[in-house]
Amino acid sequence: MASHSQNTNPVSASPRSKDVKGHGSSSKDNHSVSKRLQQELMTLLTSGDPGISAFPDNDNLFKWIATVNGAKGTVYDGLRYKLTLDFPSGYPYQAPTVRFESPCYHPNVDKHGNICLDILKEKWSALYDVRTILLSLQSLLGEPNIDSPLNVQAADLWKNQEGYKKVLLEKYDQEVTKKQS
């Protein structure tokens, strides 16, 4: 019995000592992240921003399904894309993983749906939220960073908007529209 009470270090005695070192997540951390995500969902639902939406996937607050419509007046106008957002236990201090689930022909999106957008990587801030992410992605569709492409062919073609739109619509029809029907 004495051997059990000799350990007075609360960190090493804790069954969640991994949480303190950042290798796991405590239920307290998950609760605060869940609360933040619930607030973000309400903000998104009440914002009324056209062309963006997102909801938790079933009852999992840490995985969301989102849609982003191309902005009016861009080559993406009228196109709709499905994305996933996976939130880490360290959210909002760590960026979520955001991927296009719908194939997206774009200079800053690769064939696996990975996105090159600084606010999802090195420029991430805990001040950003789901609404900010989706509005940024909607803006990125019409205003790509062709100096940092994941899809070099799309970046090269971007300069010719007429040719780009033709290829974009062909690919969208083949890869997105036909898969939905």
TrEMBL record:
What's its top-level EC category?
transferase
Q: Where is the composition biased (Basic and acidic residues)?
A: 16-32
Q: Where is the UBC core domain?
A: 32-177
Report the InterPro entries cross-referenced here.
Ub_conjugating_enzyme, UBC, UBQ-conjugating_AS, UBQ-conjugating_enzyme/RWD
As its record notes, the protein acts as a catalyst of: S-ubiquitinyl-[E1 ubiquitin-activating enzyme]-L-cysteine + [E2 ubiquitin-conjugating enzyme]-L-cysteine = [E1 ubiquitin-activating enzyme]-L-cysteine + S-ubiquitinyl-[E2 ubiquitin-conjugating enzyme]-L-cysteine; S-ubiquitinyl-[E1 ubiquitin-activating enzyme]-L-cysteine + [acceptor protein]-L-lysine = [E1 ubiquitin-activating enzyme]-L-cysteine + N(6)-monoubiquitinyl-[acceptor protein]-L-lysine
- Annotated Gene3D superfamilies: Ubiquitin Conjugating Enzyme
Q: What is this protein called?
A: Ubiquitin-conjugating enzyme E2 C
User: The organism's lineage?
Assistant: Eukaryota, Metazoa, Spiralia, Lophotrochozoa, Mollusca
